[in-house]
Amino acid sequence: MNDVILGEKLLSSSAFSHVIAVPIDKVDISEWLFGLPEAEYQRCCPPGHISCGATVTDDGTHMSINVEMVGQTLMIQHYVAETATPHLCRMVSTSDAFTPGGRTRVQVIWTLSVKPIDDEHCEYTNSVVAHPTQAFMDFISEHGTTFEQAAAARQHDGGDHNRRETPLLPRVSLGEHLLELSSRPCRDCGNQTSRPAQAR
Description:
By secondary structure, the protein is an alpha+beta fold. It has helices at residues 29-34, 38-44, 134-142, 147-165, and strands at residues 12-20, 49-56, 62-70, 73-84, 88-99, 102-116, 122-132, 173-174, 177-178, 195-196. It has four helices and ten strands.
């Protein structure tokens, strides 16, 4: 498979934000992400979230492995941390995509960030951007699909997934207990408490 990333082509892009009742100095996204229990990950967007795990690359860089359904596609995300700090994690994956028509690969960039609102609240933003690989372009060509059609489908499915998971992701581990969200959405991800992030 040709994993050359076509960064000039945008397959999808979405960003949603959610306010949490946690002071900014209590937030550590990196610690939370690489210690995320599987059951908690599954609760973040049922039934789409299937499994997760943390590992490292050969050189010791943190990785997060996510298995999830995005629309009708089973995604195996091999996220490598380009940035991993308490208030910003930028994770980049060349992901396996198992579609109804077969297997291909895409690049997914997952950015998790938080900024203070006041002394007791901060705003979490969940951004997901996808770019095709050359293998993906070959794959859709073989199936008679244009890039525009593929991008529209990915934008719809990826945006919907991000909208539903964003309110449930920012649960920050603090010692032996977990701070709850200021507005706790229901588990079916139907609560409309998240909002699209403003353009940056």
